[in-house]
Amino acid sequence: MIFLGILSLLMFFVGIIYLIAYPIYKLFEKSKINRIYILIALGITIIGAAIFIKTSFVYNKETEASTSKQSKKINHKATKITLKVNGKQTDYTDRELTANDIRQATITGTIKGDTKVHFLEDQGGDQEFNVEANSDGTFSKTITLPSSKAEISYWIDSEKQNKSQNSEDSTLLKVTIKSADYAAEASSISASSMSAASASSAAAASSSTEAASSKAAAAASSIADYRSDITYDSLARNPDQYKGQKVVYTGEVVQVLEGDEETDLRVAINGDYDDIVYVAFDPSIMNGSHILENDKIQFYGKSKGDYTYKVTSGTKITVPLVIAKKINDQGLLLMIMVNDMETLDFSRVLFCTYE
User: Fold this and answer.
1) Buried b (16+ CB within 10 A) or exposed e, 172-209
2) What is the pLDDT confidence band of residue 49, given thresholds at 50, 70 and 90?
């Protein structure tokens, strides 16, 4: 555009110079003026002037348009978002409203620089929405207070400002709606919450007590399943007949053979060293406790027939074998629980071998 302007000016001035200078030159030469040259010079002058005028007009229009755009940008940047919410001001950014008899309150206000108002429920609430402002910038939103709450709060902001998160131009306000009888409701809800918590605690305690009682009853029932009517003599004489039977005996520990996976005891039934029962159990369930020689114990277990082992002298001895599930050790009443007696491996016994 600037190039056309310069070109038109050159053409204009060349035409003027030619239009004036050539006739003068011809006059001095005392010859007739060539009309063709005059017409050419006049045409160049007119065309140059026309281009110059058009170029100047277009340039002015573009300059005006550019200026207008810059002005709009400046005005847009200068437009500040403002938000006003009606209600009782309790702090610089806090407003308070009171709900009516049907637990409703209407949040009203005005906004400039945006067309939407963003609402976000406070204290972990799940309500989040936008409210469209009217053409004059006013807006309103009716909120219903839940019966389970004495108050409810919302953070209110311009939708643009909420997206941009520009803290320098923050318009964030907080509106709290309270019930008409707030003090009484708040006290009642608090008391109900405490009562519910207490009831829950009591129910949990009752459930725990019932579970303990049930467990104790189950344990008692389990112990009652063990037979105390099978004498040592019957067990030793007919091991296959009583194999798999649940039995209970009392005796004195004669020997303890401890291992990582199995602990074995030789127990003299009722203190009689001629009536020996071989007792085996898993030591991991003892939690570090140990049964010692000469301890008086009562053991509950399952008969596994008879078991033959060799003593250091080389003599073979065959006695009844019981896999213990529970053991009461002397007056401590230590209860040893074996979850699955069948998991014990008796293919090898410490210091002894099966025949």
Assistant:
1) ebbbbbbbeeeeebeeebeeeeeeeeeeeeeeeeeeee
2) low
Place of tokens 């938000």: 83
How far apart CA 305 and CA 235 sit, in angstroms, is: 8
Q: Phi first, then psi: give them for residue 32, nearest 5 degrees.
A: -70, 145
Is 12 in contact with 49 (CB distance < 8 Å)? yes
Which phi and psi angles does 125 have, rounded to 5°? -70, 160
What is each CA distance from 194 to 124, 150, 182, 203, in whole angstroms?
21, 16, 18, 14
Question: In degrees to the nearest 10, what's the CA dihedral of 324, 327, 330, 334?
Answer: 150
Q: How high does pLDDT run on average in the chain?
A: 77
The answer to whether 261 and 282 are in contact (CB under 8 A) is yes
* Residue pointed to by tokens 């019957």: 234
| HSE-CB of 318 using CA atoms within 13 angstroms | 9
Q: In Å, what is the CA distance from 190 to each residue of 187, 194, 197, 325?
A: 5, 6, 11, 52
Instruction: Say how far apart CA 23 and CA 29 lie, in whole Å.
Output: 10
Distance between CA atoms of 106 and 99, rounded to whole angstroms?
8
Count of Cβ atoms closer than 10 Å to residue 39 Cβ: 11
Length of the chain: 355
Per-residue pLDDT of 95-125, as tens digits, reads 999 999 999 999 999 999 899 999 999 876 7
Query: What is the pLDDT averaged over residues 141-165?
Result: 88
Which region, left, alpha or beta, applies to residue 292 given φ > 0 means left and ψ of -120 to 50 means alpha?
beta
User: Each residue of 235-288: pLDDT tens digit?
Assistant: 999 999 999 999 999 999 999 998 888 899 999 999 999 999 999 988 877 777
The string of pLDDT tens digits covering residues 200-241 is 666 666 666 676 666 666 666 577 889 999 999 999 999 999
pLDDT of residue 333: 39
- 87 SS3 class: coil
